[in-house]
Amino acid sequence: MTFDSRAFRTALGCFPTGIAVMTAAGPESHIGITVNSFTSVSLDPPLVLWCIDRRSRRYSAFAEASGFTVSILGSGHKAVSSRLAGAGEHSLDGIDLTPTELGPPALADSLAVFECALESVQEAGDHAILIGRVLRFARHDGAGAPLVYFQGRYGALAQGEPPEGTPGRRITDESEN
Length: 177
Ligand SMILES: Cc1cc2nc3c(=O)[nH]c(=O)nc-3n(C[C@H](O)[C@H](O)[C@H](O)COP(=O)(O)O)c2cc1C
Hints:
- This protein has 177 residues and is mainly beta.
- It has helices at residues 5-12, 59-64, 78-83; strands spanning 17-18, 20-25, 30-35, 39-42, 47-53, 67-72, 97-98, 106-107, 112-124, 127-139, 148-150, 153-155.
- The strands form three sheets. It has a seven-stranded antiparallel beta sheet with strand order 3-2-6-9-10-5-4. A three-stranded antiparallel beta sheet has the order 1-11-12, with no helix packed on it.
């Protein structure tokens, strides 16, 4: 049986995700990459992970860095997300940044920022799993709605009331934040 990689990728795209930009020290200056593989792992100790393509030109910089900064993107970050998803587009030049306490800068106006020490790098097929220990984090109230990725396209969370019986609130209406 042949494995249809393209169909596999399309099926994986049915899982909606947020978007994050990872920043780290590069060979000359700080670099960034757009990812949707970011996820939480553990609360105690506080661990997160993301996956990087081992064929990426950014791979060695991230795998050899002492840590990385995670910026959770908002709906206003579409252009910067596309830029840092471009082949070879590693540089943060001209992007609005916020300094962090421990290391690489975060993207300005991010919904949340996690400053991580690189805990381990585990090869997994053509990607590697980078696990980070969160040393500091910040959540920015009022940063607005998240940038969402679904079936290969950017989107936003649907407006509307939360499902009945679910405690929650609309998060696309910025006036409520
Ligand atoms: C929405 C989105 C999510 C992505 N997520 C990942 C990811 O989780 N891991 C990864 O290695 N590349 C991911 N990419 C691809 C990288 O952003 C980038 O395009 C790729 O690394 C380019 O190759 P280069 O690093 O060799 O320049 C994603 C791209 C987009 C648009």
